[in-house]
Design brief:
The protein has about 130 residues and is of the alpha+beta class. It has 3 helices and 4 strands; from the N terminus they run αβαβαββ. The longest helix is centred in the last third of the chain and has 21 residues.
Length: about 130
């Protein structure tokens, strides 16, 4: 038989040490924090008009679409990948300006009118008019 008295004595000593330590109580407290959500800017409508290659002239279809625009707007115009970057930047700005001039004549407030040149595959001779 094995004498386990030494093992029992060690366990008793450890239990006594453990009993002397202060008891820690862990309390979880849930704190609710109110986080303000950013206010999304609401847009009433978006109108996309297209242009012929190399042109900033508004088509009759584009004018008909722009006749429906009201309020204040932001305009972003782009060009297709043909041509140099400098040419496309100028052309896209001419497109943005053409849309802005047309809408101003109709009493629409222009917040911004930006020509972005070529902005990827989706950029294909268009102007996007976002009305607030």
């Amino acid at each position: 038989m094995y004498d386990d008295s030494a093992l029992r004595a060690e366990i008793a000593r450890l239990n006594d040490e453990l009993a002397k330590k202060p008891k820690e109580v862990v309390v979880e407290k849930v704190v609710e924090k109110v986080v303000e959500k950013p206010v999304a800017q609401a847009y009433a409508s978006t109108t996309v008009v297209s242009f012929a290659q190399g042109s900033a002239a508004l088509t009759s279809e584009a004018k008909a679409d722009l006749d429906k625009v009201q309020g204040s707007v932001d305009i972003v115009a782009t060009a297709s990948p043909e041509g140099s970057a400098a040419y496309n930047k100028k052309l896209s700005q001419k497109r943005a300006d053409a849309v802005a001039e047309y809408l101003k004549a109709k009493g629409v407030t222009i917040n911004s009118s930006i020509g972005q040149g070529v902005t990827g595959k989706a950029s294909n001779r268009i102007a996007i008019v976002t009305a607030k």
